[in-house]
Structures are given as structure tokens and as C-alpha cells.
């Protein structure tokens, strides 16, 4: 993912992800209306929100603002406006994320204490029972690593020239699937410790229903085209030395 | 302050500040032995440490480790080793600090959850009563801004060619002094809200005793020489166009 805020940066090329954030606004609001129990939050405790895999903005700021406004509305609608808690927001991504750009673009008029958390969300990142709302958008479908057997040219699981599993032998699919299960387990195990009692979690990520036919799936087609383009580029690079 | 980790970076040019961190180790330990009351920390609460004006390491990691080890020793010496809390460490500096370098150099074997906090410590940065140890080393003596009257060439407070107040008229000294008082008030007002009951604070910054004679003070002499060097450089730059 490209850092900074130039023309090729993620910050300026994430309108697709922004549309997804907008779609979840209503769901996030309904979850807070239906499930957030004001009585569970002691008056001296801040409401702590984490965006896991937040990238560098601006989508994370919009998502967080949606959550905060929903919580505020809940207090207001219960006649408890004066009890609205302070908010602390933890923006998480890999240590290699461009936190410098994230921090320099934090909204000036924010009503929360903003914090950056470097590290993988496939492990513990926060103290026990300290988070009230965990949010993750367009991050959880990325694997923590490529299953190494896919790179072994002598293995029946070698994923020759592909960046995903469509059109590959079944054991390629199984290798990806096993890695995804491990990653999800690690993610959920860590959150199980970190989320406070009665805390909420909203996870948004790309999926395909079981049994989806590849030719009918946007995601399958997208990665197939992308894989072909990457292979073309790789072949061009390897040809150049031969033409000299 | 230079970011990154190159030959001119702060990370590789802060051995003087490192010596100061080493000097405070004993004092920090004594403060925790004498003043930290284990009973005040609920078993479900992490011990939260903030380094305000942390820069980009490595000194901040050493300072934080000293605090954590002192807290752990306190539990051990009370036979409460199994009750040692989780630690969460908030590394704070201006949003323009190089947090990318800070995060990429976090110790791999750390026993705490590390977090970056962008923003000035002359205002609120944390939720109410959420911090158990506030630490600040070689940061608090920097003013939040230059008093603007020092730049007004028509003012009797114009600080002609100096970067500090030694050798200047008394109202230059007063302007600096007033700004420092304002900054310290703002700092302490914010911390008064953020530090938990029975929390501790260790502040290390450059001072001179009242009545110090400038010619006998290392700090005075240092800034005088630095001011002269900066003026020489500024004069060189302004001369160059005239020689073309």
C-alpha cells in the first residue's frame, strides 16, 4: 500500500473502500442502538475504539466519527447527554504503515484522543478487556503470510503464475483456506481477550458465498486480471536483460 | 530534530540525553518503591505509562523499561508476582515527530503494548485519570512558541540576533519567562486531569538555579555559542546573492 498523500497514495485512491465505510454506517448505528448498554460503562471510563488495519486515512476518520456519533446519540436519546464519555481511538496497522501521514492528517476538530498502534492484529495489541468497539474494514481478508508450499516449484501445491486460487488445483485452495482459518483464529483469540464485556465488533471484509462460480464473481475476476498483469510485468523485466 | 536513523539523526546523536536517562534510573526506582501503592491499581487495570516528548528512540525505550522493571520488582518484593499487571506505554511527541522510525525500532522483546500519541503536551492528550506514570525527559524546557514581541524590530523586547535571553535586556528575559510559565501551567493543568489517583510523574529538564552567573553556566554558554554560529550561517546566506 502506498504511503504519503501523493497522486498514487492509498489516501487518494481508496474511494472504493470509502463506499464500503458508508454502507456500514447504518449497521454500526443499529448495533450501538440495540447492543451498547450505557450502564456497562463506568462514568470514569473512556469509550475506547480501535480501527484494526486502519491504513492512513481518510476512511478511518470517517468510520470512527460514525461510531462516536452513534454512541453520543445513544446517550442523548436516553436523556444522559451530560454523561457522554470521553473517547479514545486506537488507529492500528502494521509498523510499516505510514503513521506519519496518518498523524499529520488527523482531523483538527476531532472530539477524541487519537493514538497509533503499530503491529499485526493477528496477535495481542491491547490490554485485557480494554476496548469497547473494535472496527476493521477491508483488512481482515489479507492473509498474514503466503503459505510457503505455494512457492515450492516441486510441490503439487505450487501455484504456478497465480496470485490467488481460482483455476488452481484443489490443494492450492486448501493451502490458502487453511492459512485464512489460522489467521481468523489468531485474530479472534486476541480480540476475545481485549474486548471489554458487552463490547462490540464490526468486521467488514471481502467474501464470496460458498459455491460461487468464479466467472460470476467480481473478486475472482479482479484477482485473475491482476495476476495476469503482474505476470506480464514480471516477464517483461526478465526479458530486458536478454535483449541487451 | 532529525528523524530517521541516519548519521545525522536524533536516534544516533542523543548520547547526552541517554546519560540523563541513566541518571534518573535510581530516582524512578525509589519513587516507585516509596510511592506506588499496589492496592490502588485494580487487578483488571493495565499500568499505563506515558513518555511525553519521547522523540524517536532509543532513549525512550530505555526509560520505559526502567519504569516497568521497577514496578515488576515492587510486585515481586511484595510476594505478588502473579499479580503483575499488563503494561501499556504511550509514546508522545508532536505530530511531526518521525513516528515511522519510532515504531519500526520498538524492541521486539518488549513486555508492553506500545502506542504512539501525536500532539503537544501543552494540552490534553489522554482520557481522565488514565495514566499511572508520566515521564518526560529533555522536552519540557522547550517553549511551545517564541514570544512574538521578540521578533518585532520596533519593540524594546526585540531580541536582536540572539536565540536566548543571556546578554539581552530584562524585558526579553521577562518575555521568555512569561511564556515558560504559561507553558508549564498548561502542561500541569492537562496532567492534573490525566494522571490517575496516586499516579507518579518524573520530569527531567534543563534548568539553572536562580541567580546563576551566565559565564559559569554550561547551558548559557552553549546557547550563546550556538546563537553566534546560527547568525554567522544566516549572514553567509544573505551575503551570497550580493556576490553574484
- Main beta sheet of chain A: 5 strands, parallel
Query: What is the CATH topology classification name of the domain at 15-143 and 183-207 in chain A?
Result: Rossmann fold
- Helical segment count of chain A: 5
Order of helices and strands of chain A: HEHEHEEHEH
Largest interface: A-B, 27 and 27 residues
- CATH C-level label of the domain at 15-143 and 183-207 in chain A: Alpha Beta
Mean pLDDT of chain A: 90
SSE diagram, text form:
2 copies of one chain form a homodimer.
Chain A: H1 15-35, E1 47-52, H2 59-77, E2 87-93, H3 99-104, E3 113-118, E4 131-137, H4 170-194, E5 195-204, H5 218-243
Parallel strand pairs in A: 1-2, 1-4, 2-3, 4-5
GO molecular function (chains A, B): methyltransferase activity
Protein name (chains A, B): S-adenosylmethionine-dependent methyltransferase
InterPro entries (chains A, B): MeTrfase_7, SAM-dependent_MTases_sf
